[in-house]
Amino acid sequence: MLAVVLCLAFGAWSVQRDRAEQAGELADSYVNLARRITGEAVETIDAIHAEPAECGPQEVARLRALVLNSRFLKAASRLENGQVVCTSIIGRVDPPAQPPRVDLAGDGGRRISFNVPELGAPGSRSMVIREGNAMVSIHARTFIDLADPRLDFALVAKDGDVGRLLFTNTPALQGLERVSGTEPTLTFNGQRYQVRCLQAYTGCIVATLRVPQGVWGSPVMIEMGAFGLLLGLSGGFAFSAFLGRSRSLSRQLLLAMRSGELRVVYQPIVRLSDRRRVGAEALLRWTDATGKPVSPDAFISEAERNGMIGQVTRFVISRVLEDLGDGLRRRPDFQVTVNVSADDLMDSGFLPFLSARLQAARLQACSIGLELTERTTANSRELSRAIARVREAGHKVYIDDFGTDYSSLSYLSRLRVDAIKINRTFMQALHDQSDQDTIAPQIVVMAEVLGLTMVVEGIEEEQQAAYFHTLAPDALAQGWLFSKPVEASLLFS
Ligand SMILES: Nc1nc2c(ncn2[C@@H]2O[C@@H]3COP(=O)(O)O[C@H]4[C@@H](O)[C@H](n5cnc6c(=O)[nH]c(N)nc65)O[C@@H]4COP(=O)(O)O[C@H]3[C@H]2O)c(=O)[nH]1
Q1: What angle do the packed helices 380-392 and 350-360 form, to 10 degrees?
Q2: 485 in ligand 1 pocket by Cβ < 6 Å?
Q3: Alpha helices (H) in 51-156, listed in sequence order
Q4: pLDDT category, 216, cuts 50, 70, 90?
Q5: Does ligand 1 come within 6 angstroms of the Cβ of 42?
Q6: Does residue 431 have a pLDDT over 50?
Q7: Where does the record place the EAL domain (predicted)?
């Protein structure tokens, strides 16, 4: 009996510690993503300042190129005499417009405005960061949507000496104001929260893991009680500690892979000229134990951070071959692309793994293409060699989320790939009919010169498809106009 009690007590402590650890990891991951977004915003502001220019077609094209090369920005704008004169969305602003009212004054003269209607994009709201003569917009909900749905959280900005609650998804955190930003935890209304802050913008996330049931009803506790009963006589502490730890976030993805919470869906890729399905992109979906979807942007970056991306990629490859082996054997011209990181390609075990799996599935290498999601040029010589190896083995390599400017051109000629996938934010540039020709033809010419296949992502409307079909009749395309991602069983139907 004593063993049962001790095991239960140890289990309760262990569950609470794991929940705090997991909330801390999710909050860290949030701050890493937020740092990437704000870093991108600051770099873009610096780039606008670096080349002062009049607002003409060239400057509009440059602003658009900056947005296209970013991952999270929606618009970039230039100001003159305190007025907005040029934006990546509508080009020249005539007459010049007042910048949005300032909600927060950040470090280094940065002014931040929340929930601002976006110029030239009706119905769309942004968070705007302005400094000097440069301004960038980020989608209004980005910082809210980035938070993992398993968290009860609040976003707090430091406004002078006081905290300012920007958003919370729980009534328990309403009224939170004081966040020191230096302590990793705080207690509010009797509940302990993890605190992680983003220094550059003096914003913090205050979070705890949402608890669907009390600690005593948690599966870990049930396991603990059972083990206490089973192992009480022989002392089961080491094993119960193992059980408790196995719930920490870094193992959640692994558990999710095993338990079926992770699955792969497929978004068809069509030939623009006849809209025939010629391939598909494999995309991961995670529905957690509470039935909530977890955003791939959030858990993929978590996997990259924890060094687990290799396991995730291997999981996806195995699942693709399981799901689609029959279909791919019937259609050798059909190619499924899998997202990979630079680390995957540079891992010496990756290609042997892929080749062995393909051989076991009786498929050729050309059935699986690889989309390189990272744009890092670090280690580019090593990366170039790794790309050359997988291409020699027969896999097509795609650069994902491609924008355009000359640095992209040099990046491409260094890396030698087969295809580019044009970032879906590019579609936004097509809203401006008068300047629509400024970027797309550059990309098409660039792709032709380098002999690259072009895949246009994020096509939602007929006019976008028609525009690209005229410009690049041989291009491939992907987007909701043709199909949203579907289950494997629907891909070849
Ligand atoms: N608004 C709009 N969106 C469209 C449209 N067509 C496709 N999309 C979405 O655009 C994303 C395309 O994938 P990505 O650029 O590779 O971007 C992916 C990729 O970078 C990453 N990801 C997803 N699955 C995997 C994976 O298995 N491994 C790795 N390493 N990354 C993955 O997560 C990112 C987001 O994936 P998803 O949320 O599935 O979002 C997908 C897709 O659902 C459209 O017409 N309109």
Answers
A1: 20
A2: yes
A3: 57-68, 142-145
A4: very low
A5: no
A6: yes
A7: 246-493
Phi, psi of 53 (to 5 degrees): -155, 155
Which ipTM score applies to this complex? Answer: 0.94
How many beta carbons lie within 10 A of that of residue 315, not counting itself? 19
Taking the CB of residue 5, how many other CB atoms lie within 10 A of it? Answer: 12
For ligand 1, atom 3, the nearest C-alpha belongs to 458
Q: Where are the alpha helices (DSSP H) in 97-201?
A: 142-145
Give the integer Cα–Cα distance in Å for 102 and 5. 57
Per-residue pLDDT at 53: 87
> Can you list the domains of the chain with their CATH numbers?
2-209 (no CATH), 249-491 (3.20.20.450)
Q: Cα(55) to centroid of ligand 1, in Å?
A: 33
CA 325 remoteness from chain centre: 28
- Its sign, for the CA torsion 427, 471, 466, 370, is negative
Q: Cα(402)–Cα(372) distance, rounded to whole angstroms? A: 10
pTM for the predicted model, two decimal places: 0.61
DSSP secondary structure letter of residue 486: B
CA of 351 to the centre of ligand 1 (A): 23
How far from the centroid of its chain's Cα atoms is residue 139's Cα?
Answer: 14
* Closest residue by CA, ligand 1 atom 28: 339
**Nearest partner of 454 among 410, 399, 394, judged by Cα:** 399
Query: Looking at ligand 1, which atom is closest to the CA of residue 341?
Result: 30
- What confidence tier does 239 reach under pLDDT thresholds 50, 70, 90? very low
- Under 8 Å CB-to-CB from 11, ≥6 apart: which residues? 220, 221, 223, 224, 225, 228, 240, 243, 244
CB distance 23 to 207 below 8 Å = yes
Nearest ligand 1 atom, CA 457: 6
Rounded distance, CA 398 to CA 396, Å? 7
If you measure from the C-alpha of residue 420 to the centroid of ligand 1, how many angstroms do you get, rounded to a whole number?
Answer: 15
pLDDT category, 373, cuts 50, 70, 90?
A: confident
pLDDT at 324: 97
Residue 403's pLDDT is what? 63
Q: Ligand 1 atom closest to Cα of 485?
A: 43
460 CB under 6 A from ligand 1? Answer: yes
Residue having the nearest C-alpha atom to atom 23 of ligand 1: 283
Residue nearest to atom 20 of ligand 1 (CA): 373
Beta strands in 169-324 (DSSP E): 185-188, 191-198, 203-209, 262-271, 277-287, 293-294
pLDDT(159) > 80: no
Centroid of ligand 1 to alpha carbon of 412 (angstroms): 21
At 261, the pLDDT band (50, 70, 90 cuts) reads confident
